[in-house]
Amino acid sequence: MEEFIDRSFQFIEQSGWLAPLFFVLLHVFRQILFIPVLVICLLGGYLFGTLYGSIYSMIGLTSVSIVFYGLIHILPSMREKLTKLKKRFLKGKHQLTVPQMMIMRLMPFVHFHLISLYLIESTKDLKTYSKYSFLVSIPPALVYTAFGDMIHELPLAGTLIFALFLAILFLFFRKKRTNISWNDFFSLKRNER
Q: What range(s) does the VTT domain occupy (predicted)?
């Protein structure tokens, strides 16, 4: 994988004005090659600088989400596997807000397409899905491109403090209401008697 990244880096660096296009395509194909988002965004920061690297990463991450939208409708088995993962991770009881999804996209241990699946299930069409996919792609593109090297080089204690900070932000932006269905409410009342 390291050799592939090195060759990709050299190819993009030498491709001139087509470099942004190849970089966006690398974002799309990184999932097939099991390359983490962090690595590609770091590469974008190194090649294009923070501003352009972030812009190209946002375009690339949104493109990945749109490709995923198409694949999830073509391959129902992939949707079933991710739905099981989502149920295990979210326990089926949480309604995520856009800021929470933005923070989850920043967490390297949260599966990228888990958020995409949640967006598919909570939006009504491709246009709305694309808009929200772009919004939740902004934080990882900015942070990983601009500060990815710093995050990557942090000692274990620094990494744990950063993860704790993200978890606190995640809890801060949660929805503050609980919905109880009619049947659940009355089943609780019957069980108390």
A: 35-149
